[in-house]
## 1
Amino acid sequence: MADDDGRYMRMALGLAARGLGTVWPNPAVGCVLVRDGVVVGRGWTQPGGRPHAEVRALAQAGAAARGATAYVTLEPCAHHGKTPPCAEALIAAGVVRVVTALTDPDSRVSGRGHAMLRAAGIPVTEGVEAEAAHRANLGFLLRVREGRPMVTLKLALTLDARIATASGESRWITGPEARRRVHLMRARHDAVLVGSGTARADDPDLTVRDLGIDRQPVRIVTDSRLGVSADSRLGRGARQSPVWMLHGPHAPAAAREAWSARGAELVPCATDPMGRLDVGAAVRALGARGLTRVFCEGGGGLGASLIAAGLVDELVVFSAGRLFGADGTPGLAGLGVTRIGPRDWALDGVESVGSDLMHRWRRLR
């Protein structure tokens, strides 16, 4: 039974991953219904956060759900929100056992879904593949518990950790396969974040291209004084795909009006004594707006600030077979490290992507 529980829960986690980047502020949940060793229904949270995974799986199973075991990556909801409780739907469908990976930390659920199922006489097994589910739902869990989204920092570097030549040239350090992978990563996050320096220097678009997706991530710029032109590519495309400008209290009124006229959302944030955005306040502001997964693409100053504040949860580094030397631009601004302490990051995987190397690291907690 335990082996089967793990196998079907891993299947449900694979389904849940299909919702990453499209379901915020909801969690990306997967559900598998199994009766007599046969999968009779599968579902995952749909774009916008509904229908929920359980509802989709039950609809696919129909009458075959009666007598089935439900494998759900997160505790079924127990409250009436925009949809009825999924725990009630499982009970009404005649499911005879429920297996979950995680308890939902949302105060409206937080054990109530499990209790509702047990009160109806349905056995519940908790904690199956809990570690994998925790990592898959880290963004949602952080938003509920800490009020902030998960942050992934992506760096594309030369072998000597440079992001530009001595003259400032930076396109392209990595090859087309790596750049395509970055587009896939954008698609699996709710938002793409850059600093004002990157926005000015590169005039990026930050959309997902050539993958056939309809729903674009939110494009976000940290810019305390709104110095990035509203006539930039981001500004011109703000009505087609959402753009949020995080700014400080002293951003000029004319700049605010220009960005608002373009259709961008202005997000006021606190600043430090130097007039720079407080990155902690900025990230919490994103969490307050429902974001669960943010993909930061630079620059070096923003990346260093996020790392120094302990706000980077995953680090993705693409290494290209190039050397720019000490006069090139470093990938990160100074971190003020003066001694070698315990390791900050654990290696999660290494992969060749075209002619480049991609390695993933997760922050040790």
## 2
Amino acid sequence: MAVILILWIVMYLLDANRANALVQFVHDAANWLAGWSRDLFTFDEAWARVVAGYGLAAVVYLFIGHAVANRLHRR
């Protein structure tokens, strides 16, 4: 999940062609994954909103994934 979110951040910052099918798929998946954090911050710059909103979701998913992996590894 975090990879998709980070990939979207990179695509956005590099101004990827939004008409491309891969870019659209990554954007749609990232929007769904970061629905709860996407508009959480109200920076003036659009790039800052994308990095903060999608980045927060990526960090949370990484933390949850790490916690679940540790829990499963201890069994």
